[in-house]
Design goal:
448 residues, alpha/beta, Rossmann fold, Helicase, Ruva Protein, domain 3, five-stranded parallel β-sheet, 14 strands, 42% helix
Length: 448
């Protein structure tokens, strides 16, 4: 139920005018803000830089660290009229819920953060699994909501999506969010096992069950007792093994290969598919009754090209990960390089982006800044809007109108890729923001 009064804390001398029905406390200094957050509950904390008692040794990163250490469950929104895209990416990577820059609706962002906090169930406070799902796109938020709803249940979950979208990451987040998270999740890639060994791998076998079975072996179902079993690429499961899996889902019991002993285990099933299982059902290679047993709770992980707003956070996440693994100094992503990454179609999805980041860091040597040329072979660019070829007829053409049309097309393309942010679009085109604004006014007049 939506609350009648939302409570906010504003830190900084400047103020954002919030709706009159909100309860708002103002802390003009860092010290007062930290004191209030430590002792009072708020739905959202708003930082409006510059904060008067910032010192040369105390940065925005330090402030975020301090606030999050006090109340990690309270979302922090930074309202900074000078913030560029790179600043927003860095702040969100450091834990800010959202950043309102010069072109953004600060009120809308603050309200969304506050209401998200209020709608979060009490048990969601302190969610280490949430950090596994990097991104703020609607698709990621829907996935988070589903995990919160079904984590404590035993319902079977079917995760679908293209190869490389992060289906196993979603499965591990769901497992970690559940009471079973204290035990290791057991993961099996169905396509990676020979068909002749798959049944024994999953259900185990007794000594002498087949040639080479020199001793009894526990299968993955028994290994996952009281925990979660994740079966990836479930569409490759042979029909005879599908029958045995269906019986387990119906009766929660199975038999080892070569044995008539019935074994019962407490296992939560999560499966993933990179193909449409209904197509396999129509083709006769996947059982329809098994499909409906698996598709109790569906989660669809979209391809990366459909959530480009997550690319900055993912890129910075992988940069930090690779630098930590290689024990090297942190790297930063140039704004032009980020624009290039957001222009790729990423057929290999998140996995391809991670590989591209690792390659770029290797190619950059000791350089701190990752630049566009470091991503020369990262992916395939999205089709650009082609500029029409210009033909000068015998009757001539209107030079100003033709150049204006081409200029308009280039600017519209940059604004599309920058998602309407004029500052970012200007940097992509090598222009000052004021120059871009002047061109837009000029083109608008011409269009009129």
């Amino acid at each position: 139920m939506k609350p009648e009064v939302l409570q906010a804390l504003q830190i900084g001398a400047d103020r954002v005018e919030l709706p009159p029905d909100w309860q708002v406390d103002y802390a003009p200094t860092i010290a007062e803000g930290v004191d209030r957050l430590a002792n009072v509950h708020y739905d959202v904390a708003i930082v409006v830089p510059p904060v008067p008692d910032f010192t040369p040794g105390f940065t925005m990163e330090n402030l975020l660290d301090r606030l999050l250490s006090l109340r990690r469950s309270v979302p922090i929104v930074i309202c900074d009229r000078r913030a560029r895209l790179a600043d927003a990416v860095r702040y969100m990577q450091l834990g800010a819920y959202d950043v309102a820059g010069p072109e953004d609706d600060a009120i809308a962002k603050i309200q969304a953060a506050a209401e998200a906090c209020r709608s979060r169930p009490a048990e969601a406070v302190g969610e280490p699994w949430r950090e596994m799902l990097v991104g703020t796109s609607p698709a990621i938020r829907r996935t988070v909501d589903v995990i919160r709803l079904v984590a404590r249940r035993r319902s079977t979950v079917l995760i679908s999506g293209e190869t490389g979208t992060g289906k196993e990451v979603v499965a591990r987040a769901l497992h970690l969010a559940s009471p079973r998270g204290k035990f290791p999740m057991v993961a099996v890639n169905v396509a990676g096992l020979p068909e002749t060994l798959l049944e024994a791998e999953l259900f185990g076998h007794v000594k002498g069950a087949f040639t080479g079975a020199s001793q009894q072996r526990l299968g993955r179902f028994e290994q996952a007792n009281r925990s979660t079993l994740f079966l990836d690429e479930i569409g490759d499961l042979p029909l005879d093994v599908q029958t045995k899996l269906l019986r387990f889902l119906q009766e929660r019991e199975f038999q080892r290969v070569g044995s008539s002993e019935t074994i019962r285990v407490d296992v939560r099933m999560i499966v993933a598919a990179n193909v449409n299982l209904l197509d396999l059902v129509r083709q006769g290679s996947f059982r329809e009754d098994l499909y409906y047993r698996l598709n109790v709770v569906p989660i669809v992980v979209p391809p990366l090209r459909e959530r480009p707003e997550d690319i900055p956070l993912l890129a910075n996440h992988f940069i930090a990960k690779v630098c930590a693994q290689e024990n090297i100094a942190p790297r930063r992503l140039a704004l032009a390089a980020l624009a290039k990454l957001q222009g790729f179609s990423w057929p290999g999805n998140v996995r391809q982006l991670e590989n591209a980041i690792e390659t770029a860091i290797a190619l950059s040597g000791d350089r701190e800044l990752l630049i566009p040329s470091d991503f020369a072979f990262a992916g395939r660019a999205l089709p650009a809007s082609p500029v029409q070829s210009i033909a000068v007829s015998e009757n001539g053409l209107n030079f100003d109108q033709t150049v204006g049309r081409i200029e308009r097309q280039i600017i519209e393309e940059a604004l599309r890729k920058a998602r309407g942010n004029k500052t970012v679009a200007a940097e992509m085109l090598g222009l000052k923001r004021t120059t871009l604004s002047a061109k837009l006014r000029s083109l608008a007049v011409s269009a009129g």
